[in-house]
Write a structure and sequence with these properties.
Layout: H1 2-33, E1 36-39, H2 41-51, H3 53-71, E2 79-87, E3 96-104, H4 109-176, H5 182-217, E4 224-227, H6 232-235, H7 242-245, H8 253-261
Parallel strand pairs: 1-4
Antiparallel strand pairs: 2-3
Length: 262
Amino acid sequence: MAAYNVAFRIRRCMALAFIALTTAAPHSIFAKEAAALSLSPEEAVKYALDGNINIKREKISLGSAKRTSGTSWNKFIPSINASGTMTGGDNIDDPTLSAGASLSLGLTPSVYTAIRSASLSYQKQQIDYDTAVRTIELNVRKAYYNLLYEKENLNLMQANLSTAQRQYNSNAARYNRGALARLDVLSAQVSWQNAQVAFEKAQITLETDMDSFKQILGIAQETQLELTGSLDKFISMGEIKKEDTQKSKVTPPEIASLEKQV
């Protein structure tokens, strides 16, 4: 009987431990997945450059082109030919030694073309990588500030929804007291419902754009993002003049990339 009680207690402890593990583990996992992440615009760009799949692909291509360009010079290896002779003449104890060597470089037109092609391909890949980096940075910043705008707009629509609901409640109360026509109540009800539909649509759009933004950054969809930026800098931004854009002497990357292909 005592042995049975001991075995029963052991099984009971094991069952309690199993229940504790199965209930605590999911909570810890979910807590980790739902961890909040605060990002400024610059931090968002850094996350994208570290985790975006397109940037990783371009970086791999750049490394491959660099290795190809570096090893292309292996075809330009000089060949050395050495020769030596020994002559004794009439006196075998007094031989005469002579040696010679020749160095030749096999720089044929095909070798030169292969080396130059690999070099230009590497330069083009550098331009493509820089273009991809700038494109990702531009897309991240546009998406970041667009999300800030959508959040501000959602807050405004929520305020309008609350106002429409209060107006409907007020009209309904006045109608019940006989101080307002039923048409006014129905009109307020329609305005409230339209505001509610518009708010829900804006909310879905914000959630969808946030998911797309996470995909650009290369982070898990379960991550809760908090954007710490502000739209104030764009409100105070001055006008961009055409003359300012024409002062740059930098060749556009698209043109530079085409030049490397010629």
